[in-house]
């Protein structure tokens, strides 16, 4: 049985761009026309592509499966029984342009072609038997097939939709609409999850763009990836709160409150909130001669800890203490460099962003 596929055409794919067919360089690929499954090189080669050719705006080829390879044999069975019908090209972009308002890969080099479960190009599918020959022979002359009726086109479109949604062949129109509605809702939910993950610092902007594109192909993987990131952030939040409890910045009954802040607003916000909370006053501080009784030795940290009300009322005192602290930091940067702090006192860098900034500026000069 001949298995002819449309490898690519000039339809807008799920990533929002077009691959120009005449710009695909296939000569290198013809020397090693490998077939993979879902672009997974680790799973090995499952076949090859023969009779690679271009017809108008379509890149076509015939699939030849390696039946001695277990995956190749299984994929062949699924293709011939109609369970797998799609392909996806792997190509290296050489030249890009915007044509008619659409990003277009004008030139590219074909590197591999995979049998896939969900293609990025909806037209990259196996041709049915009556479409594998583009012309019919009648009375020794080449003639084109008759135009399809509206009913034929509707049925063909319905078949494609059923294939893409992986529904049973006897599905009703109502069930098709229900599946499409559910797909749209899931897509919106995933997009909201990704946006929320970006806002709370779980992922950065570049990761967001990749996940938004990939979510159209594999929503389960995206949700699993976000959950893994969320678990990692929760562990970091727990660690921060345990340190705050140990330093007396929090009491045990406040733990859940601050965990919610970290989980809903992100690790960075939680860290900033905890950094401004004063540590608990230790009993030793009130023993005669302790630091709490030597007000003349206090810096801004001690005022924040023992007398925050006085500090907020006395602006002149606040300015003097702030200048004193700044001067001390400058003196520290003269004595010790960034490498020294990283090696001997990394906690000081973590607790004092201004000191870290000064040392970093010094090291970059």
Count, helices: 15
The percent of residues in helical segments reads: 40-55%
Q: Given the helix and strand composition, which structural class is it?
A: alpha/beta
Shape: elongated
What is the N-to-C succession of helices and strands? EEEHEEEHEEHEEHHHHHHHHHHHH
Secondary structure: elements and pairs:
Blueprint: E1 4-8, E2 17-19, E3 24-25, H1 27-31, E4 34-37, E5 47-55, E6 58-65, H2 70-80, E7 86-99, E8 102-116, H3 129-132, E9 136-138, E10 141-143, H4 150-165, H5 173-199, H6 205-214, H7 219-246, H8 255-265, H9 267-275, H10 300-306, H11 308-313, H12 315-335, H13 338-344, H14 346-351, H15 353-364
Parallel strand pairs: 2-8, 3-8, 4-8
Antiparallel strand pairs: 1-6, 4-5, 5-6, 7-8, 9-10
Helix pairs in contact: 5-6, 5-7, 7-8, 7-9, 8-9, 12-15
In short:
It is built from 15 helices and 10 strands. It is α/β, with parallel strands linked by helices.
Characteristic terms for this protein:
single chain, 365 residues, alpha/beta, 8-stranded mixed β-sheet, 15 helices
Q: Care to describe what's here?
A:
α7 runs antiparallel to α8 (255-265). The protein has 15 helices and ten strands. It has a domain at 4-133. Strands 1, 2, 3, 4, 5, 6, 7 and 8 form an eight-stranded mixed β-sheet that branches. A hairpin with a 2-residue loop joins β5 (47-55) and β6. The chain has helices at residues 27-31, 70-80, 129-132, 150-165, 173-199, 205-214, 219-246, 255-265, 267-275, 300-306, 308-313, 315-335, 338-344, 346-351, 353-364; strands spanning 4-8, 17-19, 24-25, 34-37, 47-55, 58-65, 86-99, 102-116, 136-138, 141-143. It is 49% helix and 18% strand.
């Amino acid at each position: 049985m001949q298995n002819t596929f449309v490898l690519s055409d000039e339809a807008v794919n799920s990533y929002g761009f077009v691959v120009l067919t005449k710009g695909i360089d296939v000569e290198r690929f013809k020397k090693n026309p490998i077939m993979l499954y879902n672009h997974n090189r680790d799973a090995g080669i499952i076949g090859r592509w023969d009779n690679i050719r271009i017809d108008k705006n379509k890149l076509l080829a015939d699939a030849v499966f390696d039946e001695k390879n277990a995956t190749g044999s299984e994929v062949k069975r699924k293709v011939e029984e109609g369970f797998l019908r799609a392909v996806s090209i792997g190509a290296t972009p050489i030249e890009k342009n915007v044509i008619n308002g659409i990003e277009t890969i004008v030139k590219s080099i074909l590197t591999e072609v995979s049998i896939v479960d969900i293609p990025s190009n909806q037209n990259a599918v196996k041709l049915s038997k009556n479409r594998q020959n583009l012309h019919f022979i009648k009375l020794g002359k080449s003639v084109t097939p008759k135009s399809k009726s509206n009913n034929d086109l509707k049925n063909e479109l319905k078949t494609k939709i059923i294939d893409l949604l992986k529904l049973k062949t006897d599905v009703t129109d109502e069930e098709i609409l229900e599946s499409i509605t559910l797909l749209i809702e899931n897509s919106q939910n995933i997009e909201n999850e990704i946006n929320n993950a970006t806002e709370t610092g779980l992922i950065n902007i570049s990761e967001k763009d990749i996940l938004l594109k990939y979510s159209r192909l594999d929503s389960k993987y995206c949700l699993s990836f976000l959950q893994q990131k969320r678990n990692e952030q929760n562990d970091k939040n727990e660690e921060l709160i345990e340190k705050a409890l140990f330093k007396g910045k929090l009491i045990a009954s406040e733990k859940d409150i601050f965990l919610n802040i970290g989980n809903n607003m992100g690790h960075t916000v939680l860290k900033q909130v905890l950094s401004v909370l004063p540590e608990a006053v230790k009993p030793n501080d009130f023993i005669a001669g302790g630091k709490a009784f030597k007000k003349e030795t206090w810096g801004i940290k001690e005022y924040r800890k023992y007398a925050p009300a006085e500090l907020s009322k006395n602006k002149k005192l606040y300015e003097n203490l702030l200048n004193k602290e700044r001067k001390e930091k400058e003196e520290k940067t003269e004595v010790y460099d960034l490498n020294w702090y990283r090696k001997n006192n990394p906690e000081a860098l973590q607790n004092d962003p201004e000191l870290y900034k000064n040392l970093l500026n010094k090291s970059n000069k």
